[in-house]
Design brief:
Elements (H helix, E strand, L loop, with lengths): L2 H9 L3 H11 L8 H14 L5 H7 L6 H9 L10 H15 L7 E5 L6 H14 L6 E7 L2 H9 L2 E2 L15 E3 L3 E4 L1 H6 E5 L7 H8 L4 E6 L8 H14 E9 L13 E5 L4 E4 L9 H7 L9
Parallel strand pairs: 1-2, 1-7, 2-6, 7-8
Antiparallel strand pairs: 3-5, 4-5, 8-10, 9-10
The structure holds S-adenosylmethionine.
Length: about 300
């Protein structure tokens, strides 16, 4: 019995919903952990007063705004400013080397699944502290699959009820404590741009080549791979590796890894902080089957 058959069975009940969502939004959630996805679809079933999953699927087209709400509710957006502050301290020491004493070339950072933007602004604060005002091309781009999260991030004002109380770091001074919200300095807001993007879409490499014509110095792709199956993880990691400049850094979440770094021309330089450096050449052309057979499984425990 192949895994395709098993997967089809696991997804049978939610597949009509996922198929419709794919047709309308182009986002394929069949490569996410089925249990999480099912739980969250069931929340939408209840929220819309639908009598069953099947009736929800049948009525999706006529429920106003439901595709957007569904898309938004399927992803977990937990985040915070300077999440794992020690990772930022370690990154700072590497970034200093990348930027060097007199680097005038652009310094670019991509926050690849930035949720509501706290990560992107934190990275902008770190970058600003190293490059100062007026550095040409010190830029951070934040992308996320959820357009609502991106809208919130672009607005750049964080109500205190959110899990956004800022851990004290050397960079927390770049945030203003307003009566009802925390806001990044204006200069950070000028350094950061946000846009919606699905890391698994076919258009992602083209969009990124447009945003970062010279590639990225640092990619933060933290706490998103854990929700995907191994094939999707391999695609996202390959995309990140392709977008890095030589010596550029890929930073993953503390529960995430690259199964075979050398196949993507990466080497792990800090195992605790999950930081990988781009080396010049790939060991071999990436072959997803090879990556899959050697990777550790996040997927097994999800089923
Ligand atoms: C748990 S948050 C992580 C936020 C931040 N990186 C952090 O570590 O705090 C996961 C984010 O990944 C986003 N996401 C999930 N699948 C995605 C995809 N295919 N493309 C882009 N973003 C995705 C979700 O919308 C969510 O905002």
């Amino acid at each position: 019995m192949g895994t395709g058959y098993l997967l089809a069975n696991i997804l049978t009940d939610i597949k009509p919903v996922l198929d419709k969502l794919f047709l309308v939004t182009g986002t394929d959630f069949t490569c996410y952990r089925p249990n999480t996805i099912r739980r969250r679809i069931n929340r939408r079933v209840a929220a819309t007063g639908s009598s069953s999953l099947q009736s929800y699927a049948n009525n999706l087209d006529s429920l106003p705004g439901e595709y957007n709400l569904l898309l938004s509710s399927l992803t977990i957006k937990y985040t915070m400013f300077f999440r794992d502050p020690w990772v930022y301290s370690i990154l700072e020491s590497y970034l200093k080397k990348i930027i060097g004493p007199a680097r005038s070339a652009p310094v670019t950072i991509w926050s690849a699944a930035c949720s509501t933007g706290e990560e992107a602004y934190s990275l902008a604060a770190l970058l600003y502290s190293l490059t100062g005002a007026g550095h040409p091309g010190a830029r951070v781009a934040g992308t996320d699959i959820d357009p609502e999260a991106i809208k919130y991030a672009s607005y750049g004002s964080y109500a205190k009820v959110m899990p956004s109380s800022i851990p004290q770091t050397p960079w927390s001074k770049y945030f203003i404590d307003r009566p009802n919200a925390i806001e990044p300095w204006q200069i950070l807001r000028h350094m950061v741009e946000f846009m919606p993007m699905d890391l698994l879409s076919k258009s992602a490499p083209f969009l990124l080549a447009n945003i970062f014509p010279g590639g990225c110095d640092v990619i933060f792709c933290r706490n998103v791979l854990i929700y995907m199956n191994r094939e999707a993880q391999a695609r996202v990691l390959s995309l990140c590796a392709d977008m890095l400049r030589p010596n550029g850094l890929l930073v993953l979440g503390t529960g995430e890894t690259v199964p075979r770094p050398s196949a993507l021309a990466l080497e792990m330089i800090n195992s605790k902080a999950r930081i990988f450096r781009k080396i010049t050449k790939r060991e071999a052309l990436p072959c997803s089957a090879d990556l899959l057979s050697k990777s550790s499984s996040y997927w097994g425990s999800a089923l």
